[in-house]
Design brief:
With 331 residues, the chain is mainly α. It is built from 16 helices and no strands. The chain has helices spanning 3-10, 13-26, 36-60, 64-88, 94-105, 109-121, 129-136, 140-152, 158-165, 169-178, 180-209, 211-229, 237-262, 266-277, 283-291, 297-327.
Length: 331
């Protein structure tokens, strides 16, 4: 792997602020970001990337490559949880296996944004439709995770069976498609498409000029949260820690091969690989807490946030980019 590529990613200001957050916890600093702000930062980032993606889709229109990319996104979000589940079932019960599998079938918007920043440093373009792919990959994994639980989680306890009889699919679909992050992201894409150039000119100072400053604050907070979650990993064992590192690489390689078949550009291939490789630590955990209360949140949240997220932004993004360069995708 080209060391200069890794260095350019690590020396990206938002990534450095992530390390600063980790350092603050490890050195027991009293640095703290007031609780309402991280939520606001998250909402801002979703709005900004969604609006920009919608504008770029309006500018470029829909072509066969875009249509195939969106179909591939849905395919990966549906398939990754299935084979992840059966790997996890080697060591875990069905509830925890399904919850973790759904987490890894979904995506991390912040990892995606970090990959966009990486491409910007290298002056490599990417398409706005990749934001639409991001939006489409959030929900299918939740649905698949719930289906896996219903099919494989067998119990002889009458009271639990009674609870399953009351299970409401309408609530599952509502949580999958109308949870705040998905709703805001999809809505922002639509607003960007509808307003086009005029809307872009009006919101550009808000959605672009302060974007990386907000991202730096958000990753500072994520570094602090990830450092606190490291303690939870002591109970996960070598198997889950290994899963949190190697599964993203496997998923990314599959995504890269798909991008080569479709004929994606270099930048789009990296973003698609990152979407396939990332794990959700916001939307899916919220859904799993509601629909699969038997699963242990300290497992799937800690794995996504303290293992896979740091791995992807430090090692994964440059690694996937080098694989893409080696295969000559988009060249």
């Amino acid at each position: 792997m080209n060391s200069s590529v890794i260095l350019s990613n690590i020396l990206n200001p938002p990534v450095l602020f992530f390390f600063l957050g980790i350092l603050a916890i490890l050195l027991q600093s009293d640095l703290e970001i007031p609780q309402p702000l991280p939520k606001l930062f998250s909402l801002y980032l979703l709005l900004a990337i969604g609006f920009k993606g919608g504008y770029e889709i309006d500018e470029s229109g829909i072509n066969p490559e875009i249509a195939l990319t969106l179909l591939a996104a849905i395919f990966m979000a549906s398939v990754v949880p299935i084979y992840s589940f059966f790997i996890l079932k080697l060591k875990l019960d069905s509830y925890n296996a399904a919850a973790i599998a759904a987490t890894y079938g979904s995506i991390s918007a912040v990892t995606f944004i970090t990959a966009q920043s990486f491409l910007k440093v290298l002056s490599i373009d990417s398409g706005g439709h990749m934001v639409a792919a991001l939006a489409l990959m959030e929900s299918p994994a939740i649905i698949v995770g719930i289906v896996l639980v219903r099919v494989f989680a067998k119990t002889q306890k009458p009271e639990i069976e009674a609870e399953e009889d009351k299970f409401s699919w309408s609530e599952v679909f509502r949580e999958a498609f109308l949870n705040g992050s998905v709703f805001l992201l999809v809505g922002s894409v639509i607003v960007g498409i509808l307003t086009g150039e005029k809307g872009w000119e009006k919101l550009h100072p808000f959605t672009q000029d302060i974007f990386y400053g907000v991202l730096s604050f958000f990753l500072l907070d994520m570094g602090m949260v990830a450092a606190r979650r490291i303690k939870d990993l002591s109970n996960t064992g070598f198997f889950l820690i290994s899963f949190g590192v190697f599964m993203p690489v496997l998923n990314a390689i599959i995504g890269i091969l798909i991008s080569k078949v479709i004929g994606m550009s270099e930048g789009n291939a990296l973003l698609f690989a990152v979407l396939c490789a990332s794990a959700s630590y916001i939307a899916v955990p919220a859904a799993m807490r509601m629909t699969v209360p038997e699963a242990n949140p300290s497992l799937y949240v800690s794995m996504a946030l303290a293992i896979t997220f740091p791995f992807n932004i430090i090692v994964g993004i440059p690694l996937y980019f080098n694989i893409i360069k080696t295969l000559g995708i988009g060249g």
